[in-house]
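Posting this for the archive.
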Amino acid sequence: MSQYSDMDENLKAIGAAMKAVKLLRSTMNDLFKCLVDGPGYKSTSDSNESADKQFLSDVQQLINSVNTRIRELETSSNLMSHGMSTATNLSLGNTAHLGQDPAYDRTTLYSSLISSYRWNDKMQEYATNAHQLLSQNLLKRSQHAPNPMAPRPRGPGTPITHRPLIGHNIPDAQIDGFLQALQRPDYIQRTFADLQIEVMRPFGAPAILKVTCERVLRAIILLRGVVIEWVLIKGLSENFEDEDGKLDIWSESRYEVFRKITDHANSAMLYFVAPFHVDLGIRSFLSWLNSYKSLFSSPCRKCDNRLQNSMPPTWRDFRSLESYHDTCRP
């Protein structure tokens, strides 16, 4: 892969050098033509002094152009020579003798090894940078980051250490109590009156919240413990069952507006994670989802239009819950 990229760079350098040579020849041709014509060829006045001044000015301008073209040619030549000499700037020890093989199909083996070495070196550099960026990610959905490579103490006298309670390993009784409190009519009426919440367990332990926002949309929220793992948004006229009547949590909506809201909902799922108060994440997410009750009625806060490219304001601010178009959001 790196070999092809180096070849492309060499071809671009050669093309730039050929173009610089062509421009230099054209400029030199104009200079020689001006010198052959002499003074007075382009002048319309009768004064010889003005004709000489015009001639000298033209010659000076052409000489400056020639100098510029020469510098461009030197730059292109340096790039071309650098691209062709990169294979010899790196030594891989005794493998350099592979290039001395008289067989025609083995003469480029050493340059291929250098290209592979550089590609591997860049890959390690990119992987290191990606690890540093991902380690700084604040959207961690757990209270701790255990080291999987750390040795675990074993033996008959080793005390058993229990994992701390986080969103994924909360006991089922505590999860059921939270879901029952979430379905209380007084709590729903006080917090998000426009949502209808139904708890389902079609897959066993993982709970699924089937949420309906009045006259707007329907949502499936897959929970692992009390942490949101997946969100799917569809229209009121769509269902979440497949042809066999089984629950389908992966098929997207056939409407673009609800596919866009699904993307925003999965972003909000990560934003509202609270490692030390996991139940607060679900409540905050449901409050954010409740703001879509005005999806087709509220205008965009920025452009004050209800439609943009035939789309309503599908994005809701995570803090203020104000409506924005996808291209207008701050």
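The chain has seven helices and six strands. Confidence is low (pLDDT under 50) at residues 84-88, 143-149, 158-165.
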